[in-house]
Amino acid sequence: MIRAILIRILDAVPTLFLVLTLVFVTMRLLPGDPAIAVLGEQATTQQLELFREKMGLNLPLWQQYIHFLVDTVTLNAGHSFVNNFSVAQLVALNLPYTIELTIAATIIGTAISIPVGVVAAVRRGQGADSASRIFSLIGYALPDFFLGAILLIVFALNFGWFPINGGGNGLGDNLWHLFLPALALGLIKAAFVSRLTRSSLLEVLGQDYVRTARAKGAQEPRVVYRHALRNALLPVTTGLGLSILSTLSGSVAIELIFGRPGIGSMLIGAIETRDYPVIQAGVVVFALFVVVVNLAMDIIYTIVDPRIGEV
Amino acid sequence: MAVAIQAPPALPRQREQQEQGLLLQLWRHIAREPLTLIFFFVLLGIVLVAIFADLIAPYNPVAQSLLAVNQQPSAAHWFGTDQFGRDVLSRIIYGARTSLILGLSAPVLAAISGTPLGVYAGYVGGWQDRVIGRVVDLLLSFPALLLGILVAAALSAGFWSMVAVLTIAFAPRFARIARASTLSLRTAPFVEAAVAAGLNHPVIIVRHILPNIMGPIVVVLTLWIATAIRLEATLSFLGLGTQPPQPSWGNIIRDGLNNMFGSAWPIIAAGVAITITVLALNMIGDVVRDILDPDTRA
Amino acid sequence: MTQPLLRVRELSVEIGPPGAAIRVVDQVGFDLEAGRCIGIVGESGSGKSMTSLSLLRLIPEPPGRIAAGRIELEGRNILDLPLSDMPALRGKDIAMVFQEPMNSLNPVMTIGAQINEAVMLHSGQDARARRRRTLDMLRLVGIPRPEERLSAYPHEFSGGMRQRVMIAMALACEPKVLIADEPTTALDVTIQAQVLELLKRLRAQLNMAIILVSHDLGVIADMADQVLVMYCGRIVESADVDTIFTRPAHPYTEGLLRSIPSNGAGGRRLYQIPGTVPAPQDRGPGCAFYDRCPKRMPICRAEQPPLFRIDDSQSAACFAAVKEAVA
Known about the structure:
heterotrimer, A: mainly alpha, C: eight-stranded mixed sheet, four-stranded antiparallel sheet, 13 helices
């Protein structure tokens, strides 16, 4: 099993290179002069030249590429154009908020979807099943930022139970600020994962070993939770992994709605102010996130299923 | 004496006949269940509203009025007005046009750009296939929204860059489908016969391979229309897409958020519009998929 | 004659929506005494597996349903019990072993845990006692070095070993009746013989009643005392094992026996009963075997033959058989 894991890690390295290369290509080679994009159309030729010099845009492309790679590895991202903070510091400041949001949303989403999926499978065809189907259908269609906005308006604005914006200081305050945003993302995630839980559980419940468990004299709850669910959770784990990434992308809009700090709001803010180094850093962070999450899901799946582990 | 060898007739003829029956089949499937029928008409309504926006909208969507700021819903303004005094209903109506145009054109453009790439990779094989495959797999591992955001970060905002962003976000999916279909078709007997008959490759691809991969491509297309609309809304909400004052359901919510204390109606109206449209598209899309490719039934 | 351990009368099982249900088991009945083995023979679709599942009331309730009959275990009709009382019975009074041990054992649970669970469900023993019992059962079925195998997963065993594990699990609570549904079908012939030997030994040791379900006449001949032949959901012949093989009464049984490849027959084509099993919706009012029967008579088409008693040791649902018997 260790061997299988190592192979997957090694395979991620060329992927990483590819990702960084694509980011580089996107940022440098796409149409439009970055100098103009950042400084605006009114900038003088002098200002534009200064910018290009500073950004190293006049160097040959392959040199720029090397610099880019080296900078990324050494976590040297330059300084923000807007407030001259070290970009690396900005990222370090914002990253925890995004991570805690993603984790909290995943926890809430899982906590909702697994019971819903189990009930829908066990009471297949009945009212509870239809209710879960409607829940999923709406969840697929509802934009996550809309749900966030509704939650914000109803619970923070109207009832005042939760703060309107900010990320919070300290553990308790953080959790208080975290709840509504995580709930918004978690409900959307639950719409998808509950469906997956249901169909996976239904498939497992039709298996022979479930029949054996019943024949042994196990009561139905035990059959479902001890025997069926463990096997049903295997594909659900993969689904959860996929949905972590979509939760991550949803977090961008949610951070905006709830006025939370995070990589997403950092990136959007940088785009608005055309803060080039921050934009680049934000893009790289997200890209790396994706690669790492994919790798992690791969490894987890290898561990969880004892059969696959025996490569 | 050279004998002119005729290439075997391509299968598209049969497929054409199939397609006429398909539309009828589609209608019958939709009409069978009351729920899908309702959503079909809802969708039809939305499309008509988008097309005839000029005739239906009571006000100019970008006309501001300092007097009528943040009004609650009334007979004059069914959804009230926003912080600039613009009629929300009219903005929603024109927003439908923006969303639908982008929602329809993006997948189509993505199909047009992604499919040839996939076909090339599948047909030629070798290192080209491996490289393209690697890149496509990588792009696919990104959620479409994230990809969209990242590309939009590099381009400036606006309607046309949105088109580009959405196209780039979806093209890999089409490339993957096209490649898989091409791979399985490449070893099909009728393709081998065409090669043996001496047809050169571009002709084979156009006459034989392309028509036969249309099925799965169309299936994927229907899948992504709803997602494209949702994506457009999200990107506009983030400020990366359609810029105000041109209305898009996404930027209506964005403006509405800045005006939270004033009136919540723009947010509600736009959000419900997006939800209903995507829901209707999902339902109809399911039916279309059931017919075209029963294997993908959820 | 001792009071039968298990008495089944007119058991019928239907599958499908209430109006359009199909009878997959039609009025099946038999007696089973302790220490005896009854063999149920039939092709796939004959209803033999459904019969055995219904003894534990494991028929999936939608779409299936036990439509009629009585299943009396030691005098008590278990069909009268509420479904929630069944788990206490399953594994304890009646246990079942299934056909595909690979699929029938939970792939992510160790075999030790699975057998342990069987003990835990029906006894109040503590962990150490349960472990001892698990090891005893593994030894009983002949698994070498059981202490080491406790933490092994099903996929680490061979087919024959897995079947032994299943048997160990089924016997862990000393059931009075063991139902073995095609226990050897998925196994090699040599392993098959070993498993059958094991079952015979256990039957003698524990005085256990066994219901052996199989499509393989050889397996039945080896183990059973009494044989039931099923076709299209009904019992078409019931007899002592010797009688079945020497004096079959029902044409279907005769056909089955003739189809067995035998040594010394060399060169001749294998016999096949002509025709195929009719689909449930194609069956007419008469005997289900009519279209394929070499002895058919007009009455067979019009009426279902009931199970006639030919003598003390044999019954057959066949008009022609009765005719021959009285002739």
